[in-house]
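Let's practice the habit of predicting before peeking. Look at the sequence and jot down your guess about where helices and strands might fall. Then scroll down.
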Amino acid sequence: MKIYQILDVYSDQNGINIWLYNEKERIHIKKPYQPFFYFRKNESVKRLLQKKFKNIKIVKDIKIDLIDGEIEVYKVITQNPLTYNKIISFIKYSDIFTETDFYNIQLSPETLFMFEKKIYPFCKLEKTEKNGRCSFKKIDDLDLLDYEILPLRIMYIDFELGIGKENLRFLRHIPTLTIRFNEDEKSIVIDNDLEYLQELLIKKDPDIIIANYGDDILIPNLFEKGLKFLNRNNLPVIKKEGKSFVSYGQTVYTADMSLLLGRIHIDSRNSFFYKEVGLDGIIELSRISSLGMQAVARTTIGTPITYMEMKNAYENNFLIPYKKNQPEDFKTLEQLIKIDKGGLTLKPLVGLFENVAEYDFFSMYPSIITNYNLSYETINCKHPECKKTLPYTNYRICTKKIGIVPQTLKWLLERRLKYKQLLKKEKNQIYDNRQKALKWLLVVSFGYLGYKNAVFGRIESHEATTSIGRQLITFVKEILEAKGFRVIHILTDSIWVYKHDYTIDDYKKMEEYLNKRINEKFIPVNPDGIPFKILLEGVYDWIVFLPSKSNSVGVSNRYFGKFSNGEFKFRGIDLRRRDVPEFIKNFQLEVFEHLGKAKNKTEFLKLIKDIDEIFDKHKQKLMEGDFSLKDLIIKKKVSKDSSSYQKRTDLSEVAGTLLKEGFNLNPGESVNIIYILDKYIKAMPLEIYLTNPKPINIEKYLKMLEESKIGLLPKKLFGNVLR
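Done guessing? Here is the structure:
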């Protein structure tokens, strides 16, 4: 008996390729496969597809639409993945989809195969042999928390950089490569020796290649130079072009992608999930979503949860809509004003406070969605017997079935809670990375519920969620105020309160009381829901809520404080910002290291008098040139094409300089900025500066340091203490 795990699954013109591995061997299996999809019964669409595509089979079927229930559909069975992909591309990029409803066409052949066979990446399989034939049996359970990952061969590729902050996109030559085969192993320096690299690749045969700048620079460059066996079957590397898009008002750029076959390639620079939760988190998301590791590593946060929902729908025999035709329900102006308000925010009282408790709901919005059965298909459903209305809205909710979104979120919530319980017993980095990965999915689940292009999104569900959320936090506020607490701040699912002489134990008892009252009042529609939980995040020795820079009004997301256990919490200050140079962050870190000695408001005000000395020390370092160049880098993101800037700013000058050097910036890309003294320009890209240095504009950086001090400890609050 041999045990394997699934490493990679992909399709080609003939079928599905599966790569299995264990401690000793790697196995390649090919399976013929005929992918299929559905469309609502329409004779003209049927004739069109039959005329345009040969060797497809179209049969009648009865399937369940999430809104309309059982409907007549045509099932289109294709000859192979290649044909399937051609037909899907034709449907998506022609007007045919306006003539009828298509279903399941979002699924790639390999994803459809895994859904159908109920397997997933890193699924454990047992190999058995009988009469000279071998077969593989699934011996895994997706509900397992402590699942085993068999040892993987991992190759790490990086570069020897001058100051370590250069963007390789804007360098003329690729720096020297460094390679290691586990995290603790000493790096092997390769002076771009292709033959030696080829020998290493063949000898070590890595399962996973983690490469800095792997997607858009390293892998394409190595492949073009003739490096073989990047893929285990030595086929060409799959190249996908990068793109710019707008998400939540921010311009985002995803770099070109270089995907391998039979091996996993992760670009450590081009992967949000790798930076946040590492390989452990990516494997967790890959297993539960049936998305390959390479896809998870490069995708936006909402994609894995969308695939989980589609998988849930598929396993429940529901059709997965391609383009929903469910319009937003009509609302009067009065109804719209009442329900469409978003989360509740109470601007903080500005100032320095002590002994403040922070209570946070555990996954408030996902819990609401789960408990009130909020989903695309459950709001104002077509069942005449479903007459129950949601609290604080006029929307009816389905009581006959549990929606796809609540089913998915309940499983995620319970799974994350179990990981957190395990972590309380034993600190385990793998479990922590897994629960953090799940947390990211839960964070975006609410946003996707109201996103018009989300497969299971519906604005009414989104509105109902925020409406109930406002009532939950208001209810907590009223209880606390009735008990004599002073409410300092409210932000959606968090509340900061104070009561004289209250201890941590007292605040902890109040947590128990709040949970009892909340769950007595807010009764779930979903009988299989989960209890609402509000948790004591901690009690602050001291906390400072900062005013707006333009007036004295409090800002909801600008504060800093020290918990009684010594940990800090920062929001909205320079230390948390990406566009602030390291020397300013170092200044603020030293400030907090000093203020961290304070155990109450009185001690804080005594220690704050020493901040001027810390400031003077960092100011002197700047003036004397006692700094590293990397400490001066400002990282900013361009929002448009390099040639589109009309006003002269530091960003437009840097973009213009790069353009002159032959480097065009994509909207959403980040650039490294150095401020200089020059009569023509005030800023240069770091990568150009390194080859053509100019005098540093120290006055600019001194001004930034001064602004950082004022922003952290404004004169409006501490003017009588600081100069």
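How did you do? The chain has 21 helices and 28 strands.
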